[in-house]
Amino acid sequence: MLFQHLGLRWVSAGDWKAKHCYWDSRLTTTKGRQLYAAIQNANATCVSNGLPTYWPTDLNKQPDCIDFFIAKGIAANYILISP
Fold first, then answer.
1. What's the Cα-to-Cα distance from 42 to each of 3, 5, 16, 57, 63, rounded to whole Å?
2. Pick from 8, 30, 37, 67: CA 20 to 30 A from residue 17's CA?
3. What is the pLDDT of residues 15-71, one digit of tens each?
4. CB proximity list for 42: less than 8 A, separation 6 or greater
């Protein structure tokens, strides 16, 4: 995966379209499990403020967190996420 080619220190952000409780999603999907495994394999960490980043237009769906940062080799005291 991409993370193996980024080096010792990096930050990657995006709309991952994957849900996992690890980054404060309401539920865990197959894509979320795969991304979580890749994050763990890279010895990286997920950075999120825990707030929803996706608001569906379908009233039967609920807001959720699918946009967040993944970081490796960056000390937590250098990372600040604000709404």
1. 6, 10, 16, 35, 28
2. 8
3. 999 999 999 899 999 999 999 999 999 999 999 888 898 899 998 989 999 999 999
4. 1, 3, 4, 72
What's the full length of the chain, in residues?
83
Give CA 27 to chain center in angstroms.
13
Q: Read off the tokens for 4.
A: 């193996």
The answer to whether 26 touches 14, Cβ cutoff 8 Å, is no
The structure tokens 């604000």 sit at 82
Cα torsion 25, 26, 32, 33: sign: positive
Closest by alpha carbon to 66, among 41, 40, 32? Answer: 32
Q: pTM (2 decimals)? A: 0.85
